[in-house]
């Protein structure tokens, strides 16, 4: 670096060289140098939430009369001007206009102090610029700790930002679930007339309709959507105002309630006050619970993707009861091969989400006494899980589910050979005779109808009525 490439910033540990045009300051620069770990960057939803918190804090503290006038280089700067500049700079953060200034690795010092100070420094320096001071000024009126971080601690801002950020991304995730469930419902209706072999233990079982299978998939997605939405409700309870340990030291007695109300107004998200600020500092259980709901949804999505891969297997040597849209060649050596790539993609995405959840779980139990210091990587994994799940479910729906076609001939052909159809005859001929018929049908490669009539257990008319495959999918006792 040449002298013109950087400026000198100071913190409690001394001087630090900072890139000349950067809005961040000394503590952020130390974090950059201390934690060149993953090369990853936190998700925008987190910084949106941090910007919202800083703006709300400036509004609330100004309304409480806590911003004092300052004299800088003989010039008086009103406390209200400082508050206004912070609000304006924080608004730019909320709108994503300063996104390139948030440069701290997610794997960093505990609790997220580096995250918090990165935001504090960027907003302070941008606020100073708004007030007419450049980044090289020896004295600047807006201080990152005294003003931008007023009445706050890393320990209450970071968990509040995680909650707000997750809630801001929740509608997109729920919409992806809704879209998938709707597409599966539509396929279920389209496939309702196709009767096929059911399978348990991957072996032949009594008939089901292909539409019933797809309707069950749709209902599973709807139930998981409900689980995720319910789990998110606990995230609406905010601990902002607990400051360092939950006692609210250095925060006005009205600060907590006013902050929750202001954040709700600014975000448009339903929020609630914490009923115990100490618990809000200590426990990340709400986040672990929400992550667990994502994991539960991920395992169900994996199961459905696996079923679709099985049902489409072949096409000449597998089940091939459904046909998937061909979206790309499936082999570099076998011409004409087409693979279920969208189902495979969803599997991989959901495995990743499950891994994210395990990290969140480990982070959650690692809290000690008044603080959980594992929030930086916990938050990254939560945001990443939501991001991956939202996008993968949407793509799976649009590029696979809506284009699934049924292979009626193959599905009904398998059913015709299914000796387990004899189960429907149990109330008439009994289990022992039914087992005899099933064994002979499989041994001679004949249908149950043929064998049961040949043995004289049923007339042709009785066999046709009792073995009506569509009727068998509707339950009940048939005599």
Report on the architecture of this protein.
With 479 residues, the chain is mostly helical. The chain is 56% helix and 8% strand. Strand 1 and strand 2 (14-19) form a beta hairpin. The longest helix has 37 residues, at 154-190. The N and C termini lie far apart (90 Å). The model has no long low-confidence stretch (mean pLDDT 95).
| CATH top-level class of the largest domain | Mainly Alpha
Characterize the overall form: elongated
Query: What is the CATH topology descriptor of the largest domain?
Result: Fumarase C, Chain A, domain 2
**Series of H and E elements:** EEHHEEHHHHEEHEHEHHEHHEHHHHHH
Low-pLDDT regions: none
Distance between the termini: 90 Å
Structural class: mainly alpha
Topology of helices and strands:
Elements: E1 6-11, E2 14-19, H1 26-34, H2 44-63, E3 70-72, E4 75-77, H3 79-94, H4 113-130, H5 144-148, H6 154-190, E5 195-200, E6 203-209, H7 210-232, E7 237-238, H8 255-267, E8 272-273, H9 277-282, H10 285-311, E9 322-323, H11 341-365, H12 375-399, E10 405-406, H13 408-416, H14 426-429, H15 431-444, H16 448-454, H17 460-466, H18 469-472
Parallel strand pairs: 7-8
Antiparallel strand pairs: 1-2, 3-4, 5-6, 9-10
Helix pairs in contact: 1-4, 2-3, 2-4, 2-6, 2-8, 3-4, 4-6, 6-7, 6-12, 7-10, 10-11, 10-12, 11-12, 15-16
Tags for this entry?
479 residues, elongated, 10 strands, Fumarase C, Chain A, domain 2, Ribonucleotide Reductase Protein R1, domain 1, two-stranded antiparallel sheet
């Amino acid at each position: 670096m040449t002298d013109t490439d950087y400026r000198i910033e100071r913190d409690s540990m001394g001087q630090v060289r900072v890139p000349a045009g950067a809005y961040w300051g000394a503590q952020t620069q130390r974090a950059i140098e201390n934690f060149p770990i993953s090369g990853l960057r936190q998700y925008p939803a987190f910084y949106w939430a941090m910007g919202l918190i800083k703006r709300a804090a400036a509004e609330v503290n100004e309304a409480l009369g806590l911003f004092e006038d300052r004299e800088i280089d003989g010039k008086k700067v009103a406390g209200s001007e400082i508050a206004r500049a912070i609000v304006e700079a924080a608004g730019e953060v909320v709108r994503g206009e300063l996104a390139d200034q948030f440069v701290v690795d997610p794997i960093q010092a505990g609790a997220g102090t580096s995250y918090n100070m990165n935001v504090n420094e960027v907003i302070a320096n941008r606020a100073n610029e708004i007030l007419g001071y450049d980044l090289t000024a020896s004295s600047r009126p807006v201080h990152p700790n005294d003003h931008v971080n007023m009445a706050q601690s890393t320990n209450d801002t970071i968990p509040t930002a995680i909650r707000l950020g997750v809630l801001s991304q929740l509608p997109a995730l729920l919409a992806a679930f809704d879209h998938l469930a709707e597409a599966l419902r539509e396929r279920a209706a389209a496939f309702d007339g196709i009767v096929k072999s059911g399978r348990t233990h991957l072996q032949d079982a009594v008939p089901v309709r292909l539409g019933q299978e797809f309707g069950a998939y749709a209902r599973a997605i709807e139930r998981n959507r409900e689980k995720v939405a319910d789990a998110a409700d606990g995230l609406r309870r905010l601990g902002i105002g607990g400051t360092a340990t939950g006692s609210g030291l250095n925060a006005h007695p009205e600060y907590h309630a006013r902050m929750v109300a202001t954040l709700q107004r600014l975000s448009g998200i339903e929020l609630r006050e914490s009923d115990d600020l100490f618990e809000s500092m200590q426990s990340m259980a709400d986040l672990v619970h929400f992550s667990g709901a994502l994991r539960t949804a991920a395992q169900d999505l994996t199961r459905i993707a696996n079923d679709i891969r099985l049902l489409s297997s072949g096409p000449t040597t597998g089940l091939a009861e459904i046909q998937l849209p061909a979206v790309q060649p499936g082999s570099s050596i076998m011409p004409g091969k087409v693979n279920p790539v969208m189902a495979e993609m969803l599997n991989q995405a959901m495995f990743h989400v499950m891994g994210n959840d395990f990290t969140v779980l480990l982070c959650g139990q690692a809290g000690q006494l008044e603080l959980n210091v594992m929030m930086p990587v916990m938050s990254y994994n939560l945001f990443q899980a939501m991001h991956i799940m939202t996008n993968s479910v949407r793509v799976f729906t649009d590029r696979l589910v809506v284009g699934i076609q049924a292979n009626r001939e193959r599905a009904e052909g398998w059913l015709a050979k299914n000796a387990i159809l004899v189960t429907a005859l149990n109330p008439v001929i009994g289990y022992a005779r039914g087992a005899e018929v099933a064994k002979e049908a499989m041994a001679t490669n004949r249908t149950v109808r043929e064998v049961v009539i040949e043995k004289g257990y049923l007339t042709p008319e009785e066999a046709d009525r009792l073995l009506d495959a569509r009727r068998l999918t509707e339950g009940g006792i048939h005599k």
